[in-house]
Amino acid sequence: MSGITSDGETTGRRRREVLRLLRSSPEPMSIVEIAAELGVHPNTVRFHLEGLVADRQVEHVAHGRKGPGRPPLMFAAIRQMDRGGTRQYRLLAEILTMALAADRDPRAKAMAAGRAWGRNLESHASNTEASGPASAEDAIDQLVDVLDDLGFAPERRTSDGEQLVGLRHCPFLELAETGGSVVCPIHLGLMQGALESWEAPVSVDRLDAFVEPDLCLAHLTPAAAG
């Protein structure tokens, strides 16, 4: 097809030019109008428009002209932020961690946030019997499943009769290394909130961070009577 380049970089640049032109235009534009504005072949414009429409960045719009003859296809940019851009979720996490750390009682606020998050993990609850909450063993297994889904690489342990859950991976490792006073209490609160929402007969008493370079330990105890 005439005018269409197979070079990826040139194709991407040309496609951005088409999108930029449509975004700046107060009115929808036809293929011929876009081609004339950019000084390229209409087939090149058609090729890029097909890609932009498929990516939901551009849409077909009705032509306002009335009269005989088939009206040309008209195109307009969809007014939205560019979803193909970069994301900075770690930066957002750092900002929120710093904000919590500046609080008068960052540990309490972080634990409360974690509990709220944990209580929303009800979809992981497996005990649906009408007889009451799950056993301690079932609740711990359930908690391990949740932590595994979240990327903590958990493992059940016992030490001198105490039930433990070891965490071999931290999904927020870089933040935990610099902002452990906030991140670790969030994790503790998350586990406590999840168990509370399941009305489990067991709770997490404390979380010891980095007892080994690759291990954090959650200590489980019988839940307090409600």
From TrEMBL:
It comes from the Bacteria. InterPro entries: WH-like_DNA-bd_sf (IPR036388), WH_DNA-bd_sf (IPR036390). Gene3D superfamilies: Winged helix-like DNA-binding domain superfamily/Winged helix DNA-binding domain. This is Transcriptional regulator. It comes from Mycobacterium alsense.
